[in-house]
Amino acid sequence: MKAKINNIGLNVKPPEKVCNDIKCPWHGKLKVRGKIFIGTVVKKYQKTVTIEIPYLKYVPKYERYMRCISKIHSYLPECIDVNIGDKVIAVETRKLSKTKASVVVAKVE
User: Average pLDDT for residues 32-41, to the nearest whole number?
Assistant: First the structure.
């Protein structure tokens, strides 16, 4: 019997592993909405990853762009295998803890 996989509304391939995590958008009841973040995993904890997101900011004084980096904490479901240095896609969701308001959806190949 195949495990039920939810449609999260993104054009992303679902993970092959199955989990019983209630906070997983693929196998649980967590809804995703809002912004989509693409970045690199910098730190990995038990169920949390820190993602580094690079972006450009315009500086009017020098009429140039400055490279900036933003870091976000994101929830990591059990069914997604990620290591430090991997590129991932995270999506905004409801507040999961004091610092987490996004969930990792997929690993970019």
Answer: 94
- C-alpha distances (whole Å) from 105 to each of 9, 26, 63 are 11, 8, 37
Q: What is the domain partition of the chain in residue ranges? A: 32-107
Q: Is the whole-model pTM more than 0.85? A: yes
Burial of 12 (0-12, 13-18, 19+ CB in 10 A): middle
3-state secondary structure of 42: strand
The CATH architecture to which 32-107 belongs is Beta Barrel (2.40)
Radius of gyration for the chain, computed over Cα atoms and rounded to the nearest angstrom: 15
Percent of the chain with pLDDT over 70: 97
Buried b (16+ CB within 10 A) or exposed e, 18-27: ebebebbbbb
